[in-house]
Design goal:
Ald_DH_N (chains A, B), globular, Aldehyde dehydrogenase (NADP(+)) (chains A, B), 19% strand, Aldehyde Dehydrogenase, Chain A, domain 2, homodimer, seven-stranded mixed sheet, five-stranded parallel sheet, Aldehyde Dehydrogenase, Chain A, domain 1, 2 domains, alpha/beta, oxidoreductase (chains A, B)
């Protein structure tokens, strides 16, 4: 295994369809193992300073992942049950990200070079600014994206692109996929003449805390739960030398359906919602988790009927791992039992022949005045909550209670009067990193204009984890004053 | 007074030349006062969304400061003893900053707009990204720049430019200057049709902690001491909703003199060093506080003699306030008494007729092998430490012990062999935000290529507090997906 840990407890790889342990592809890393991984990574900083070689690394990594596609898909599916179609798409996104960052590095525009030449008249010195890597990046793999947000994912790609070596805390939900990808990336590094240690992995809960606290760790990228992420955020801030903690800690992704929208296309909205919140078994960061619908009948009945019918037809399927399944079932049951909550579709276990651990989606509804605080916490998995609002005073009252979120969406009618529209949008805008109009937040694209990150807890820094702008998470500006050309980085020479 | 606090203890304005209390221009703010100030500021967010009006505000603020120049200079000098020449320059820099940010706002390039149009072929949605203000900015005025880093300074200018209302925690060293400038800025706001509360002030130590903890405070800018800054940093990170803390907490600004440089121009370097570290009585963030000089004689003698002679001729002058004076005298005496330290010029009180509290600079020297940890802490005021190094192993050993710093400088000879030069620069680069070659760090310029901020503790985030890039401290990206033109911010329309 690439993590080279020899003494810790074996890390199991579990089949989420059955709960059976498949293998033990790694060992948990103790403090000495973490130290070895971070120190080895730090030693590669100088080698990574070679910009063309970094671009070559990212291309070689993408090629290596493509070449191993069958093995990657089989391993990832065995560990996550996400299925071949979804994982094929995710692998394509992952290699696309790596190649995008390769072009970003080669282009050099991300360095935001500024050159202010000396002005002998005013005595102004020669000043030239570029950007320099922060140091070793600690990356926490996400459970729900075993490729695109894990070992070979966006945080790793953007950090390597910036010139930062990476140590990944692998995710316990897909340790074998993590090790497989790490081997491929380390091999790609060696093939382009870089040390394999530009990327390392560690496994185990305690390894994550040691990684954040290691003196040579210079920044952290995290995608995961509010509780775990907040604890690591606090550790990063409490270090003798605090470091940036770029965390995505959960998102409710509220949706507002206007009265006119419901009146004109209730069934379409209900069906669209069901498709969105059950996509990938509701295991997307952008799953719509709270949907404000107008209480006026008969539109409400039509919308709820369409959503319930469509969600009930979604095939039962396992969740990412048995722990997430337990949390989903317990969390959904707790919410369903809150006062005032109406269960439109009961969440629960739904064993199938090949997946005894499969579950079915749930759909809850509640009046705005009965909205319990616990319904404002994200419930990971195929569950959403319809909040029935009665009038224009309900809406702002509910929106004022919402935490920061990755996305906020609104479904409206073409003839919606701007006098009603703009105030609502003004209330949604401060909540979210992406405002979605007449579409569902899970329908998205990885393009330069994409913003993935919103006010806390959706993100802990005002940055994006998706798209090439993510490279700025791992850089700091540095200015050279009056430096002779042979002492300047290449991009700062005339 | 503009802070409208009615009940707290009166805040004294003290004459740093004599220690006499001049006036009580404000009162300390309690929690309710801070709440009132932040809430009033937050109510101006919508008004500040008007970009042309923000540009007008920044121009009007600069004009108002210019028009009140005599009163500002007299008040600031009475409170800081910085003198008319220095304060005239600082006021010019302050109004220049305000006008630069006015142009930045009007130009709009800082919004980094990206538009990716819909692609019906792939189903890609229309995505348009801009930047949006974080909310109320808390700005901590700096003791050593009563204008350029205080109420009307760079943090305030960049935050207002970004569209963030500002509440300034005024500095106890110049409360009257702070209130005067606040009145001028609030008047400027009203003249351009904005609420005066786009800028407020609070006074008192406790007010600072309440300000950082207020739920509506969205980001903090701080320039000051390591101890105070770290405490506020920790409060910002520990909030239920953590917020960015952009702090500048001190800087040692190491300088390395190569053997060849000392051999060829020892006297010039010694004289230049004295001018740099005594400039403004050593009260610059960029004061060279640790100077590595080759121990080889006779060059060392010539360099030290020149530095001592020049520093001894610097006129005795008061420091910014009596507390800073006490800290300087105690800190300098402590360092002078450390084992192995040689006192080349004894720091101490040097009363003059018009300034009984004046002090004179100090100059210390120590062998690299005797370098005590306490000499690696910044001593605010006109003191620097020469560290005599013997060979190529001393240098990296000392540099490895240095904390992050705003600047790192090297004095070298024109014929320095690159084989010796590049490894040294490679060791300096990770320490600093600005690398200075054959010049002193206090000689600088406010231009787009300037970087003011370095690794912790020189800065707590990888950003700059000087130059128009500082606007990014107060913004977060936001993307509009499939929004009709009438719902888009102006800059995102076709």
């Amino acid at each position: 295994m690439t993590d080279r840990t020899r003494t810790g407890a074996p890390v199991p790889s579990t089949d989420p369809r059955t709960g059976a342990v498949r293998a033990h592809p790694a060992r948990e890393a103790g403090p000495a193992d973490v130290d070895r991984a971070v120190t080895a990574a730090a030693r590669t900083l100088d080698a990574l300073a070679d910009r063309p070689r970094r671009a070559a690394l990212l291309h070689a990594a993408a090629d290596a992942l493509d070449a191993a596609r069958p093995e990657i898909l089989a391993t990832a599916d065995a560990e996550t049950a996400l299925g071949e179609a979804r994982l094929t798409g995710e692998l394509a996104r992952t290699t696309h990200q790596l190649r995008s960052f390769a072009r970003t590095v080669a282009d050099g525009g991300y360095l935001e070079v500024r050159i202010d030449r000396a002005d002998p008249a005013t005595g102004r010195p020669d000043l030239r600014r570029t950007k320099t890597p922060l140091g070793v990046a600690a990356v926490f793999a996400a459970g729900n994206f075993p490729l695109a947000f894990s070992v070979p994912g966006g945080d790793t790609a953007s950090a390597l692109a910036a010139g930062c070596p990476v140590v990944v805390k692998a995710h316990p939900g897909h340790p074998e996929t993590g090790e497989l990808c790490a081997r491929l990336l380390r091999g790609a590094a060696e093939r382009v003449g870089l040390p394999a240690d530009v990327l390392g992995t560690v496994h185990g809960f305690a390894a994550g805390t040691h990684l954040v606290q290691h003196p040579l760790t210079a920044a952290v990228g995290f995608t995961g739960s509010l509780r775990g992420g907040r604890a690591l955020h606090d550790l990063a801030a409490a270090r003798p030398r605090p470091i940036p903690f770029h965390g995505e800690l959960g998102s409710l992704n509220p949706v507002v359906v206007t009265e006119r929208a419901a009146a004109t296309r209730a069934a379409e909205i209900g069906t669209g919602l069901a498709a969105s919140y059950t996509l990938g078994q509701g295991q997307y960061c952008t799953k719509p988790g709270l949907v404000l619908v107008p209480a006026a009948r008969p539109a409400l009945d039509a919308l709820e009927r369409a959503a319930t019918t469509a969600a009930a037809q979604a095939p039962a399927a396992p969740l990412l791992d048995p722990r997430i399944r337990e949390n989903y079932l317990a969390g959904a049951a707790h919410r369903a039992a809150l006062p005032g909550v109406e269960v439109l579709l009961a969440p629960g276990p739904a064993p199938t022949a090949d997946a005894p651990l499969a579950v079915r989606p749930g759909l809850l509804a509640v009046a705005a005045e009965d909205l319990h605080d616990d319904l404002l916490d994200e419930c990971f998995g195929p569950l959403t909550v319809l909040v029935r609002y009665h009038d224009d005073t309900d809406l702002p009252a509910v929106l004022a209670r919402l935490p920061g979120t990755l996305t906020a969406a609104r479904h409206h009618a073409p003839d919606e009067p701007p006098a009603r529209t703009l105030p609502l949008l003004a209330r949604l805008a401060p909540l979210a990193g992406r405002l979605v109009l007449n579409a569902w937040p899970t329908a998205t694209a990885v393009t330069p204009a994409m913003q993935h990150g919103g006010p806390y807890p959706a993100a802990t820094t005002p940055t994006t984890s998706v798209g090439t702008s993510a490279i700025h998470r791992w850089l700091r500006p540095v200015t050279y004053q009056d430096a002779p050309p042979d002492l300047l980085p290449a991009e700062l020479r005339d």
